[in-house]
Amino acid sequence: MSTNKLTLSIDADTVKKAKRYVAAHGTSLSRLLTQYLASLPDETEKPLPPRVGRLAGVLPPQTDTEEYKAHLHSKHGL
Asked: pTM for the full model?
């Protein structure tokens, strides 16, 4: 995947808050913004049903889905 540089104008308090958040969550500001922007719906996608939409974001973005599936399988025998 290729990357592009982007310049943003964000107020200083928001930048400080974001830097504290990424430090506490072991990620970078670039990765946080990339994950957020990637999660935005595509214009061609149908919206999720409300029940499913409420579940979006329940798992932290750095969660390995295969590892989580294995956890569920061992816990619940699914």
From this structure: 0.53
- 70: its two tokens: 């294995």
Tell me: the pLDDT tens digits for 35-75? 888 888 777 878 778 888 777 777 777 788 888 888 888 98
Count helices and strands in the chain by DSSP H and E runs: 4, 0
Torsion angle, alpha carbons of 58, 1, 30, 28, to 10: 70
Q: Which residues of 40-60 are buried (b: 16+ CB within 10 A; e: fewer)?
A: eeeeeeeeeeeeeeeeeeeee
Q: Are 60 and 24 in contact (CB under 8 A)?
A: no
| Per-domain residue ranges of the chain | 8-42
Separation of alpha carbons 28 and 18, rounded Å: 9
Distance CA 35, CA 51 (A): 22
